[in-house]
Amino acid sequence: MSQHALRRLITGVFNVQRSETYRSALRVGSCVKINKRCRSDEVKGSEEFDVSILEFLVCPLSKKQLRYDEKSNELINEELGIAYPIIDGIPNMIPQDARMIQKMETSKNPSES
Amino acid sequence: MAASIRTLALRTFCDSTRNIQHVSRSRVKHSCCPAWVTVCRGYSDGTEGKSTHFGFETVPEEEKAERVYKVFESVAGKYDVMNDAMSLGIHRLWKDSLLHVMNPQPGLRLLDTAGGTGDISFRFLEYTRSMHERQQRQKARSSQTPSWRDLADHYATNQTGLPPSRAVVCDINKEMLKVGKQRAEKAGISTGLSWVVGDAEELPFDDDQFDIYTIAFGIRNVTHIEQVLQEAVRVLKPGGRFLCLEFSKVSNPVLARLYDAYSFQMIPVLGEVIAGDWKSYQYLVESIRKFPDQETFKEMIEDAGFFCVQYFNLTGGIVSIHSGFKL
């Protein structure tokens, strides 16, 4: 009886030890995996801009089509020389938040309604 | 508590008389009574700029948009929780009623202005999805032995399985849209949903683009309601529908009194307890009182160029749905 109990105790301890190492290994592995996933998800999910809205999205001031600039992540109105920023995949179409593109000769600020 | 009610009542009375005198001053340039003139001068701020209401306060028009922005920026995080608490969950029924009135067919394009956290858009996509599924089932049931042509068509068209219903959520406030986007990601709604930061008075959309335009609990916060209505006419396709869900005037006097008591006593307190913001919810309650009543708003919609304008009162007139068509 005592031998049996002793054997069970020892195997139990070993099991615990084994599961501990297993668990810690898993944790490290999952951490790495989760980190990777989070980072890639963040990059993909929040910063992705849906280009299909450019079908009907226009500049609120001139109502003309916009050009999507991938490098600076902005929507550019060539005519007026303004660029609307895209933050977290959501385009900001408020004229006051738009940036003037410097190469326009007439430096007229985009006015609000 | 009684004292605060009294001061509040006095303030509202003073404000209402101030508004009346403001209106009469604009009509009667040189009033005969000097006392009246001095009183008016005392009340008017003396500037030439136009002013509008921010709750019961009178503010210059330029300021209103900024102050409304700040209100919603501060409540964005707790907006949905507060809606449930203040309306005891009834706002969900109101929004469901809006969808039932809308009765959208699959494949339509919706512009949800002042969409904020996206409640209407989510419901729209859910509704069209389930309607599409029901249509598919009915089609399958009715056509027991489809012909080869039907089968070929079925395989050709149903590749993605869904017609392209699209919902675009437009709001002037980035914070509200951020909260909405997180909610969408959590609920797993991604196809057919777009988010845009834009001003309802100057929409960044081309003419004749949308089948349905909705503005739910947003139009009382804009500075120029007429401009919003004009923009709505512009972006809607001919045959498109304008729908507005907004707080309105309660006709029943008993209900009105209960509603006023609840609004002015409970809601700012809830706002303080849950969202830590008394003033924003005080603004909310006051802005409801300043919004025109059902008939006046109906006339405004007709003036903008909509036809077949009608309204449906919900919960005794606390909320009403106005609908109009662009023809």
Automatic annotation (TrEMBL), chain A:
SUPFAM superfamilies: Trm112p-like. This is Protein preY, mitochondrial. It comes from Triplophysa rosa. Keywords: Mitochondrion, Transit peptide. Its main location: mitochondrion. GO terms for cellular component: mitochondrion. It is found in: Mitochondrion. Belongs to the PREY family. Pfam families: Trm112p (PF03966).
From TrEMBL, chain B:
InterPro entries: SAM-dependent_MTases_sf, UbiE/COQ5_MeTrFase, UbiE/COQ5_MeTrFase_CS. Its EC number is 2.1.1.201. Pathway: Cofactor biosynthesis; ubiquinone biosynthesis. It is a peripheral membrane protein. It catalyses: a 2-methoxy-6-(all-trans-polyprenyl)benzene-1,4-diol + S-adenosyl-L-methionine = a 5-methoxy-2-methyl-3-(all-trans-polyprenyl)benzene-1,4-diol + S-adenosyl-L-homocysteine + H(+). It comes from the Eukaryota. GO terms for molecular function: 2-methoxy-6-polyprenyl-1,4-benzoquinol methyltransferase activity. Its main location: mitochondrion. SUPFAM superfamilies: S-adenosyl-L-methionine-dependent methyltransferases. One of its GO terms (biological process) is methylation. PROSITE patterns: SAM_MT_UBIE (PS51608), UBIE_1 (PS01183), UBIE_2 (PS01184). Gene3D superfamilies: Vaccinia Virus protein VP39 (3.40.50.150). S-adenosyl-L-methionine binds at T117, D171, D199, A200. It holds the Pfam family Ubie_methyltran. One of its GO terms (cellular component) is extrinsic component of mitochondrial inner membrane. It is found in: Mitochondrion inner membrane. Component of a multi-subunit COQ enzyme complex, composed of at least COQ3, COQ4, COQ5, COQ6, COQ7 and COQ9. Interacts with PYURF; the interaction is direct, stabilizes COQ5 protein and associates PYURF with COQ enzyme complex. This is 2-methoxy-6-polyprenyl-1,4-benzoquinol methylase, mitochondrial. The lineage of its organism: Eukaryota, Metazoa, Chordata, Craniata, Vertebrata. The gene is COQ5.
